[in-house]
Design brief:
It is a single chain. The protein is α/β, with parallel strands linked by helices. Helix content is 41%, strand content 17%. The protein contains five helices and six strands, in the order βαββαβαββαα. The protein has helices at 15-31, 52-64, 77-89, 126-135, 149-164; strands at residues 2-8, 35-36, 39-47, 70-73, 93-96, 115-117.
């Protein structure tokens, strides 16, 4: 048996995304007779409400009280940044379902040895855009982004590529 903790916002401002994540995972299990990788899955779900501090509390509960073998989840980059240190401290695998925080696998590579990324990073889609803008002859750019990790990292992807080819942000 494989006990998996599933951390997702079931309530709060990200509830629709969180519920979609949960329903997708449950659908997979339903279609595979409750099995994952040949093991019967016991899924323990916790509501993070989309808040990093709540996610940390729930992750600790999943590992220390519910004795999960791993935990999955995190929607926002801030949740990912909060959950990765918990997985390292408690030596428990953390699989990020959506949290695309760059530094979980980039500049601080190896800092979170129990972290597994299944998706892209926040900056990734904007590297080609920065290169494209440069290739079109643009020399200066202004960036407006959301005021949290994902916004900064998305803008950073554009900025890195744009400045590497001579542009100025």
């Amino acid at each position: 048996e494989l006990r998996i903790g599933f951390l997702t916002p079931i309530t709060g401002f990200l509830s629709q995304t969180g519920q979609d994540m949960l329903h997708g995972f449950q659908l997979y299990l339903e279609q595979h007779n409750g099995m994952l990788g040949g093991a019967k899955v016991d899924l323990v779900v916790e509501d993070t409400t989309g808040k990093p501090d709540v996610a940390v509390t729930k992750a600790r509960k999943l590992v220390l009280q519910d004795h999960v073998d791993m935990f999955i989840g995190g929607v926002l980059a801030t949740e990912g940044y909060a959950l990765a240190p918990v997985s390292t401290e408690l030596k428990t695998v953390y699989i990020s379902s959506v949290a695309a925080a760059d530094d979980l696998t980039q500049r601080q590579l190896g800092k979170y040895p129990y972290f597994i990324r299944t998706t892209w990073t926040s900056s990734l889609p904007n590297h080609p855009l920065g290169q494209w803008a440069c290739d079109q002859g643009y020399k200066k750019a202004v960036i407006i982004a959301t005021d949290y990790a994902f916004g900064y990292e998305s803008a950073g992807g554009f900025q890195k590529a744009f400045e590497d080819c001579g542009g100025k942000v």
